[in-house]
Automatic annotation (TrEMBL):
One annotated Gene Ontology cellular component of this protein: nucleus
Lineage top rank: taxon: Eukaryota
Subcellular localization: Nucleus
UniProt KW DNA-binding keyword: yes
Coiled-coil stretches noted in the UniProt entry, renumbered to this chain: none
Alphabetical list of Gene3D superfamilies matching this protein: Homeodomain-like
PROSITE patterns: HTH_MYB (PS51294), MYB_LIKE (PS50090)
Phylogenetic classification of the source organism: Eukaryota, Viridiplantae, Streptophyta, Embryophyta, Tracheophyta
Ranges of residues in domain Myb-like: 10-72
Region ranges (Disordered): 254-283
Protein name: Uncharacterized protein
Length: 297
DNA sequence: AACCGAAGCAACCGCCCACGA
DNA sequence: ATCGTGGGCGGTTGCTTCGGT
C-alpha cells in the first residue's frame, strides 16, 4: 500500500529539476548586483551586517553574513583581495600564479560581455595584487631583521630609503619623486604583514640578486622583470628615486556606482578596468630601477 | 548503496553599548 | 558618577543537505 507521492497527479504541479528560467525566478538567491553592493558596503562599513542589511531590502543581517562567509569571502580571496581589509593579500602564495595573471592583465582591455569584462577585471586585480606583494616583499627584505646583514647589492636601496626618509609624504604627487619611507613601511605593515613568510627562510639573503631572482620569469607585459628590479651593484648613494606609493584604493567595489532604486532592487554600474592599484600605477619602483645600479626617476 | 567531505544555513552565545535607577 | 539591565550585534558552532567516490 503506502501512500502515493504527494504531488503526483495533482493538476498544475510540476515535478523534477528546476529549469534555468525557474532558477532565475526563484527567490532567495543573491543577485550579482546585490553581491557587488554587499562588497561595496562591507568595504565601507566592515562587518556591520545589520547596517548592510538595511541597504538590502528583504535581506537579514544573518543572511548577508552567511553569504559573505560562504561565498563572497572566498571570491575575494580568489581575486587576491583580503576580505577583511579589502586590500591585496599580503602573503606571497600568489606569486606562483603571477606570470599567467600578468599575461592576462596585459591582455586586458578587450571588449566583451559584461561577465567577461568582470572576469578580466578580476584577473587584472589579481595581477595588481601580486605586483603589490612583490613590493611588500622587497621592502620587507630591506627593512626587517629577517635579512641578517645587508649584502652589497642591498646597500643601494637601503641608502636610498634612508636618504629619502625626510618625511615628505609625496603621495599622489604626480611625478614628483622621492619616496616616503614611512609610507612604504606603512604599506608593509598592513595586516597580514606578519604572515609574510620570511624571505630568508627559503633562501638566504645575498643582496638584491636573491630578491630579484624571485621575479625571474615574471614581467610579461607589465614592466616587471628581474632585470629591472635588480638594481645590482653600483656605488651606494646612487640617485635612485622612486615615486611615492599611494595607498591602494580601499576597495575594488568603490569603483562601482551602486544605487538602490527604491523598488527593492539594486543597480550597480561597474567601471571598467578599475583597480585597487590605480594609485599604485604610478609606482615606478619597478620601472625605475635600472641595471646600472642607478635608478632613474 | 553506503560513506565521507564540503557547503550552506539557522541558531546560539558572548560581548558591547545605551539607558535608567 | 556608578552600577545594573536589556537589547542589539557579530562571531561561532552545529545540523542538514548535497555531491563525489
Amino acid at each position: 500500500m503506502g501512500r502515493s507521492p504527494c504531488c503526483d497527479g495533482e493538476a498544475g504541479v510540476k515535478k523534477g529539476p528546476w529549469t534555468p528560467e525557474e532558477d532565475k525566478l526563484l527567490r532567495g538567491r543573491f543577485t550579482d548586483d546585490e553581491e557587488k553592493l554587499i562588497i561595496h558596503l562591507h568595504s565601507l562599513l566592515g562587518n556591520k551586517w545589520s547596517s548592510i542589511a538595511t541597504k538590502l531590502p528583504g535581506r537579514t543581517d544573518n543572511e548577508i553574513k552567511n553569504y559573505w562567509n560562504t561565498h563572497l569571502r572566498k571570491k575575494l580571496l580568489g581575486m587576491g583581495i583580503d576580505p577583511v581589509t579589502h586590500r591585496p593579500r599580503t602573503d606571497l602564495s600568489l606569486l606562483a600564479g603571477l606570470p599567467g595573471l600578468l599575461a592576462a592583465a596585459g591582455n586586458f582591455g578587450g571588449a566583451g560581455s559584461a561577465t567577461g569584462a568582470w572576469d578580466m577585471n578580476a584577473l587584472r586585480l589579481q595581477a595588481d595584487a601580486a605586483k603589490f606583494q612583490l613590493l611588500q616583499g622587497l621592502v620587507r627584505a630591506l627593512t626587517t631583521a629577517a635579512v641578517p646583514a645587508p649584502a652589497p647589492g642591498m646597500d643601494n636601496l637601503m641608502a636610498l630609503l634612508a636618504a629619502s626618509s625626510g618625511g615628505q609624504s609625496g603621495m599622489n604627487n604626480g611625478g614628483q619623486h622621492g619616496v616616503d619611507q614611512s609610507m612604504l613601511l606603512q604599506q608593509c605593515q598592513w595586516d597580514g604583514m606578519n604572515n609574510l613568510p620570511a624571505l630568508t627562510n627559503s633562501a638566504p639573503a645575498s643582496g638584491m640578486h636573491n630578491i630579484s631572482g624571485m621575479f625571474d620569469g615574471f614581467g610579461a607585459g607589465d614592466g616587471l622583470s628581474s632585470t629591472e628590479l635588480g638594481c645590482h651593484g653600483g656605488a651606494s648613494g646612487s640617485n635612485v628615486t622612486v615615486d611615492a606609493v599611494a595607498p591602494p584604493r580601499p576597495m575594488v567595489a568603490n569603483d562601482q556606482e551602486c544605487n538602490n532604486n527604491g523598488g527593492g532592487g539594486v543597480s550597480c554600474e561597474q567601471t571598467p578596468a578599475s583597480s585597487p592599484f590605480d594609485g599604485l600605477e604610478s609606482l615606478n619602483l619597478m620601472d625605475d630601477l635600472n641595471t646600472d645600479g642607478k635608478c632613474h626617476g
